[in-house]
Design goal:
single chain, 1% helix, 340 residues
Length: 340
Amino acid sequence: MKKLILSMAMLCATSMLFAQTQFFTGNPFYYNQVNQWATGVSTQSAPDEAGCVDCSVPQIQRLTYISYDNENNSIINQTGDNNDANVFQVGAQNYSMINQKGNDGYLGLGGTFNDAQVYQSGDQNYSDVKQDGDFNDSDVIQSGNRNFVMQDVGIGWAEHNVTYTRQMGDDNASYQKQRGDGNTAMVEQLTNNNEATQIQNSTDSHSAGTGNEASIWQYGGDDNKAKQVQTGTHNYGFAEQNGTGNTSLSTQVGYSNVGDGFASNYSSTLQIGNENLACVDQKAGPMGANLSAIYQLGNNNKAGVSQNTDASGWGNISYISQYGNMNNASVMQTNGTSPF
């Protein structure tokens, strides 16, 4: 069986940068673990071994609003009781739509205690907020030009979802879709031409704070792209990118989560520099938990990580930290038989 941790010689290396590939399967100790460190500048290009075969972030389809008299437009539709919606727009040709309702199929009643806030300053900003269910909260803050936000929250009785988007700059796009209960999605983009996508589907029922949580902060530099997809319960995804041309994609699936905190995926990605790429794909079994953390600082860095566990799980752990240029790392771990 291959070693679970890199040799001490590799851990202590400080002057060279290496491409690394790890693969583990069927660990009898019920969890796999990989720790990778590298720092310095490589004299040769690292081979393309990082497990990012399809780490592209699809472009968000943006809608635009054109008013030939330069007026702003706001549409609010609400069904139910104690719903609150506020729209504040300064500039020209800004568009905002808010739809809030609940499960119309039950006694014809709509949602209750939903809250939506939209603040737009600049020109040609577009915001579309939809909330179905009860006790959902959405906030949109846009300052700049030609920014796009779409928030699609809940179907029927979805409850206790929180959706937040803040975009400062020009030509940014954010798409957030949440299904189920207790999800939290947050996006901040403070430069230009950034894109963030968050899709969450919680399998928990009518409970606040026990769904999925996803956060994306993209600071400094332009053209950052990030996508997070989470299904199940107790998933947590975090990505912060600072630089130009960074890409981060995280996909987590919690299968048959029991709601006790053990059946959880965790992913944290921090990228500072240029041309960084990080991909994380995690699947957990009925009790299993994957954990992945990637930190990249420098140029031309790559990281892969695909973790899959079941067989009553408490599965894989992976940590990658790369400093310098032309880094490349790939981790693949399998424990038990995957149900997917």
